Amino acid sequence: MSAEVQQSSGDGKKKRGGSKQKKMNVRVDFTPMVDMNMLLITFFMLCTSLSKPQTMEISMPSNDDVPEDQQTKVKASQAVTLLLDENNKAYYYLGEPNYKDYTSLKETSYDADGIRELLLKKNRSVVAKINDLKQQKVNLQISQDEYNKLSSDAKGDKSSPTVIIKATDKSTYKNLVDALDEMQICSISKYVIVPVTSGDKFLLENFKSKGAHSANSDNKQ
Amino acid sequence: MAKVKVARKSTFIDMTAMSDVTVLLLTFFMLTSTFVKKEPVKVTTPGSVSEIKIPETNVLQILVDGKGKVFMSLDKQADLAATLESVGGQYGIKFTPEEINKFKLNTTFGVPIKSMKTFLGLSKEKQDEVLANEGMPTDSVDNQFKVWVKTARSLNPDLRIAIKADQETPYSVIKNVMNSLQDLKENRYNLITSLKVTEEEKK
Predict the structure, then answer these.
(1) Which whole number is the average pLDDT over B80-84?
(2) What's the pLDDT at A13?
(3) Which of A71, B70, B110, B141 is the most exposed place for a label (fewest CB within 10 A)?
(4) Are residues A90 and A152 in the same domain?
(5) Are A44 and B33 in contact (CB under 8 A)?
(6) At which of A156, A176, A205 does a domain end?
(7) Residue A90 belongs to what domain range?
């Protein structure tokens, strides 16, 4: 069917002027127009990405050498070192590494009952504050701006742990993002990604061999 | 017997209303759409709970695939052209206006600068094919990736750097990219992820 213009014939009334004018019934068939529109809609629907991807903002430490007296020291009691290893395995130790005792390194996972549990426990007071603020925001007691300000204040709490993330070369990008994600979930503001040291490699080897390495090195000394 | 007269009804349906609806939908899609960028390699981003959205413009996206190939994309054609000219200048390669025009058409690029001229001489289909097997050299001997980032940043200081990497990418590759950025004193950047909902938030 193409656009048709139907003519109503017959009932042409005489106008004042006397000239006989046919009254046109202008009824256009819209079917092809709808067809075309549908086609275009389909095209746009398929070609667009409605949801924009999420991002994580991270700040890395700069390469500049910071003089010794300006370096921020982390209290051993507040430090948690997270080692990301191959096959989606993660390990952590608290405070200073203990090279003698392989059990100081503990295996953990990226699941809810893994590293998250530990960090939530360590960061209890801050998490409680943040949850409280979130609730207030939901109840419209505070605005988004206030929430942002208050939550960053809460996150800056002195007692919150500092997490040091060390990813080995064999770990994947997903592991790193998962680890960073845990920081977000646990509202930890102080975390850093640093390269793995030989000491950490030793710890990992030692853990896997159940203390064989440290026993050997003790004998040598 | 009297004939039963079947009233002939016109099957002409008024499509005007329907047309109105479709035009409305079309307008909506046209206004809200941002086109999916063509990427030479398929990348599955890892999930995260982060809800920060990536800015729409002025993004320098670094695309890293699972095998460690690195590509870059810029969203402004003017930036693309200026960057190519400047990088070409640094390596002593002069690009003709046609080559620059061709380069401007692809938002994602990632071939070694030495083969850029031959790459730009290829047809569009061939280019896609070649690009998927190429990648920017990122090793310490000839870190062209660093040069590209540095040049792009110097030409457009508002650029935000975003890394989009496959979830299976070994960390050593990411480390390499991050170290290059660190050398350039680019310490703040974004990691592109897809949305993941944690158990806590589902409750």
Answers:
(1) 83
(2) 45
(3) B141
(4) no
(5) yes
(6) A156
(7) 75-123+160-220
CATH code for position A187: 3.30.420.270
Nearest chain A residue to B199, by CA: A112
**Interface predicted TM-score (ipTM):** 0.71
Segment A43-70 shows an average pLDDT of 72
Residue A63 maps to a domain: no
Q: What is the pLDDT of residue A10?
A: 45
pTM listed for this prediction: 0.71
Q: Say whether both A177 and A144 belong to one domain.
A: no
Residues A137 and A198 in one domain: no
Element (H, E) at B192: strand B188-195
pLDDT digits (tens, 9 = 90+) for B94-115: 888 888 888 887 778 878 877 7
Number of domains in chain A: 2
| Interval A164-179: pLDDT, tens | 888 888 888 888 888 8
**Do A183 and A203 share a domain, yes or no?**
yes
- Rounded to the nearest angstrom, the gap between the alpha carbon of residue B1 and the centroid of all alpha carbons in its chain is 77
- B165 at interface of A, judged by CB pairs closer than 8 A: yes
Q: Check residue A1 and give its pLDDT.
A: 44
The Cα–Cα gap between A8 and A4 comes to 12
Same domain, A114 and A190: yes
Min CA distance, A113 vs chain B (Å)? Answer: 11
pLDDT digits (tens, 9 = 90+) for A177-196: 888 888 877 777 778 888 77
DSSP states of chain A as a string?
Answer: -----EE--S--PBPTT--B-PPEE-----HHHHHHHHHHHHHHHHHB--SPPEEEEEEPPPSSPPPGGGSPPPPGGGEEEEEEETTTEEEEEESS--SS-GGGSEEE-SSTTTHHHHHHHHTHHHHHHHHHHHHHHHTTSS-HHHHHHHHHHHHT-TTS-EEEEEE-TTSBHHHHHHHHHHHHHTT---EEEEPPPHHHHHHHHHHHTTTHHHHHHHHH-
Query: Nearest CA of chain A to the CA of B60: how many Å?
Result: 13
